[in-house]
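TICKET: design request
STATUS: open
ATTACHED STRUCTURE:
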């Protein structure tokens, strides 16, 4: 289709989006249930996406042959602008839709796209990402999980950690070592793994906010079909870098577009209810948060515009991700100041909500690469500053003293 929508067609599509959202984007109501494993939120997201698929409003810019709508980028922009005005229904699909789906769409073979994308778009299948390991967090290239070719299958052995929603995912995208005889960045490949495959064990990680969204995942002689290799053999580091860019965009920009100041709006409403909104110092802090949200929204709009122009996310995605964590730092301290002691000792369920949001906000500075990693990326790839010294550059992986290789 042409990228040029007529004003009449654009308004008709906008009305169609609003009518759908009026009916289906009504918020996720848990009736006080903390939903520690995310199952209820995920189910609500799946119901929403399947309704959107039926209404022709899911996967707007993906080709129709792979389950999308084949529409242009302006349709996607209109959808995001309207969705921003409603309660989010799809936070539990951030990884599945914001990271895994774009990777299959960009790097998957025709057969892989035909097999997986339609169910990904509609959320009939949910996907997770498996990169981090106990000895390979910020330095993911030091991973030790290995995949060895055996006839028509790859056999995977190893461990992943901090895997969000692995316990409810149907598939996972994993990176594993396929050639230990070359430098650590050079011998990695990416695979699509069915999460119900024999030999996979998932264990919940208990979080400080009471949640159990994260998991350890263990692989013992897990057999994956040879055609589940995603992209080229031993090109997994470039693939992982591309996926991390998608991840930082997904975390930093969310699922909506336009100017959004939902955090400051919520705190202004709370301060008004508690009778503290007239405090001039508090008002100044609230306006600082609002200014940060507005600035971040403008950066998100630029990043989204690049995506809609068909560009793979670049290192600028680290800026939006870093912005989002800085905003949450301000929001956390300000929300606790407004709510006061009720945020740590409460009589009604709303106090627990404030507490969970506060302690859960810290993970934003870790997920998708720590704030320090984001600053390194921005300094190196955006500002062109000299890189840190790398003592293992060019050294074959099997000669490095790390993890279980230390002995």
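STATUS: resolved
RESOLUTION: sequence designed for all positions
ATTACHED SEQUENCE:
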């Amino acid at each position: 289709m042409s990228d040029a929508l007529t004003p009449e067609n654009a308004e008709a599509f906008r009305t169609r989006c609003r009518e759908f959202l009026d009916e289906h984007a009504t918020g996720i109501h848990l009736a006080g249930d903390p939903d520690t494993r995310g199952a209820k939120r995920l189910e609500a997201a799946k119901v929403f996406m399947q309704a959107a698929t039926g209404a022709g409003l899911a996967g707007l810019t993906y080709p129709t042959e792979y389950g999308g709508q084949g529409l242009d980028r302006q349709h996607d922009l209109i959808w995001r602008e309207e969705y921003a005005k409603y309660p989010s229904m799809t936070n539990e699909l951030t990884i599945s839709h914001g990271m895994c789906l774009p990777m299959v769409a960009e790097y998957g073979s025709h057969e892989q796209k035909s097999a997986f994308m339609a169910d990904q778009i509609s959320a009939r299948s949910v996907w997770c990402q498996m990169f981090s390991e106990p000895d390979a967090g910020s330095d993911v290239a030091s991973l030790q999980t290995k995949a060895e070719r055996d006839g028509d299958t790859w056999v995977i052995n190893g461990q992943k950690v901090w895997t969000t929603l692995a316990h409810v995912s149907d598939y996972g995208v994993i990176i594993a070592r396929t050639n230990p005889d070359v430098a650590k960045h050079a011998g990695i490949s990416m695979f699509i793994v069915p999460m119900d495959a024999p030999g996979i064990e998932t264990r919940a990680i208990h979080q400080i906010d009471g949640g159990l969204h994260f998991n350890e995942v263990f692989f013992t002689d897990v057999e994956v079909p040879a055609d589940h290799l995603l992209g080229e053999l031993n090109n997994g580091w470039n693939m992982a870098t591309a996926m991390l860019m998608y991840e930082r965009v997904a975390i930093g920009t969310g699922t909506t577009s336009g100017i959004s100041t939902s955090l400051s709006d919520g705190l202004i409403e709370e301060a008004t209810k508690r009778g503290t909104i007239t405090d001039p110092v508090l008002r100044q802090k609230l306006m600082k948060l609002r200014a940060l949200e507005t600035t971040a929204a403008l950066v998100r709009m630029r990043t989204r515009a690049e995506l809609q122009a068909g560009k793979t996310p670049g290192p600028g995605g680290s800026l939006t991700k870093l912005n989002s964590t800085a905003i949450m730092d301000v929001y956390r301290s300000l929300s606790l100041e407004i709510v006061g002691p009720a945020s740590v000792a409460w009589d009604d369920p709303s106090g627990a909500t404030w507490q969970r949001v506060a302690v859960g906000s810290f993970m934003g500075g870790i997920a998708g690469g720590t704030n320090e990693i984001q600053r390194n990326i921005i300094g190196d790839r955006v500002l062109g500053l000299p890189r840190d010294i790398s003592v293992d550059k060019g050294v074959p992986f099997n000669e490095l003293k790390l993890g279980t290789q230390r002995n």
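CLOSING REMARK: DSSP finds eleven helices and eight strands in the chain. The two ends are 59 Å apart (CA to CA).
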